[in-house]
Amino acid sequence: MSTSSTLRLAFAAALLCLLLAACGGGTTTVTVLETSPTQEGEAETSSDQGAETSSGETSSGETTSGETTSGETSGGLESFQTPSGNIGCYIGPEGARCDIAERDWTAPRPQDCPSEVDSGQGLEVTASGPGQVVCAGDTALNPDARALPYGDEIQAGDFTCHSREDGVECLDDGDGRGFFISKQSYRLF
Which domain holds residue 54? Predict the structure, then answer.
């Protein structure tokens, strides 16, 4: 199965779980944990709550505006959006992807992107290299995803996404590669 197919399948599973799960208000930092199958049709899950000081800073130094939550969805993906709703993302242990509804820029179509699918509606980063332009027939925009407040971050495995007033930055913490996406511009690194 190709990486694109795997990401689409994982995103669809995560979206289904998010639609079925109750939304929690005030959560700002989420650590996504992988599930491990125990029996056919079942999955073993665990959660890890971070300690938070009264100033809103977690023991790992992440700034939060409320509680720290460990979130888990099927396939290890967590969906979120910016408070404006213009950028929708998902993050998991294999990478991060953000799509954007309104933008003032056009990204070049990847050479290996089939003509049957869209391209340039978003950016992604995986452990296999630097950020890249999305080539997919689906979207990471989810109006039902929780809003990640500006100034907060979400982590999964070696990946972190930062919600900022000027856009979203997602990167591989191991090598610093990733992307920045906003209405005005984008950057791959």
Answer: 3-19+28-188
